[in-house]
From TrEMBL:
The lineage of its organism: Bacteria, Pseudomonadati, Pseudomonadota, Alphaproteobacteria, Hyphomicrobiales. The keyword Lyase applies. Its EC number is 4.1.2.13. The keyword Lyase applies. This is Fructose-bisphosphate aldolase. It comes from the Bacteria.
Length: 335
């Protein structure tokens, strides 16, 4: 029996749970491993992800699903168990990043378009067979003087919509991720400029999703928060929460079951505090939770350090951040 898209989407944003983004591409995971002086070999990547997915308490109680990378969805744990099985045994849903990355957009200096639509129908069918029940595609929008351009916003929104329609055809829930970068260059934009661009991007994305006949009940939105650029002043937690919720309320239809934020370069504590403040202070038509990469993994990666004897310490660090973010998903996190 095929599961209904709507039911999978609801399970992805179950009360007090969120998503673990562990879908770093080979290039990105190398950058993360460089910070602990570890070589990015296939075995080290496997050991690291196995450590996370075998954090039983964290996975069972706080994580609804995991976004995997192509290599990981095919990998087995050291004892031969497929990593997807370990995730499923904790009640988690396996997901897969299907975009092929942001590449320079012809005719638009300084802007990017996300590639990966060619052959996507066939790849989705294969991923379904490998256990994936949701997918992710990230469009990247960078703020600088005079940018983004309308052309870049529109083309990225169109690609997201074509991807989402293909996912639903394959019975896979699309995570639609249009990221307005906080850590792009120069990164000195204000929170109000971020608001304006995020509102514009989300309006455009939902118009394209409508034109592509995407069923909103069967998708999850993964947006950035409305926040100052990394090299600008830092707005208060209350201001980020208020502006983010206002921006989402004016752009995201109430039929979307859930919104799961990316962390985007915020510190671990900031990402938790912002999410909790939103859930504590506002009534919203959708579930609001996390789909963090760095903000869930940074402490665990450091505690592990690539050493087998530190696996338990890495798992404790991961469990702590997962629990803090799960509390934030119901507005119950306290400093
Ligand atoms: P960060 O939370 O580290 O931004 O990663 C989430 C993600 O999946 C980005 O595509």
């Amino acid at each position: 029996m095929t599961e209904r898209l709507e039911d999978i989407a609801i399970a992805m944003v179950a009360e007090g749970k969120g998503l673990l983004a562990a879908d770093e591409s080979s290039g990105t995971i190398k950058k993360r491993f460089d910070t602990i002086g570890l070589a990015s070999t296939e075995e080290n990547r496997r050991d690291y992800r196995e450590m996370l997915f075998r954090s039983e308490d964290a996975m069972k109680n706080y994580i609804s699903g995991v976004i995997l990378y192509d290599e990981t969805i095919r990998q087995n744990a050291a004892d031969g168990t497929p990593l997807t099985e370990i995730i499923k045994q904790t009640g988690g849903i396996p997901g897969i990043k299907v975009d092929a990355g942001a590449k320079p957009l012809a005719g638009f200096p300084g802007e990017t378009i996300t590639e990966g639509l060619d052959g996507l129908r066939e790849r989705l069918a294969e991923y379904y067979g490998l256990g994936a029940r949701f997918a992710k595609w990230r469009g990247v929008i960078s703020i600088s003087d005079g940018l983004p351009s309308w052309g870049a916003v529109k083309q990225n929104a169109q690609a997201l919509a074509r991807y989402a329609a293909l996912c639903q055809e394959a019975n896979i829930v699309p995570i639609v991720e249009p990221e307005v970068l906080m850590d792009g260059k120069p990164g000195d934009h204000s929170i109000d400029r971020c608001y304006e661009v995020t509102e514009w991007v989300l309006k455009t994305v939902f118009a394209e999703l409508y034109d592509a006949r995407v069923v909103l009940e069967g998708m999850i939105l993964k947006p950035n928060m409305v926040i100052d650029g990394k090299n600008a002043r830092k707005a208060s937690v209350e201001e980020v929460a208020e502006k983010t919720v206002r921006c989402l309320k004016s752009t995201v239809p109430a039929t979307v079951p859930g919104i799961a934020f990316l962390s985007g370069g915020q510190s671990d504590e900031e990402a938790t505090a912002h999410l909790s403040a939103m859930n504590a202070a506002f009534d919203m038509p959708w579930k609001l939770t996390f789909s963090y990469g760095r903000a869930l993994q940074a402490a665990a990666l450091k505690a592990w350090g690539g050493k087998p004897e530190n696996v338990a310490a890495g798992q404790r660090a991961f469990a702590h951040r997962a629990r803090m973010n799960a509390l934030a998903a119901t507005g119950g996190w306290k400093e």
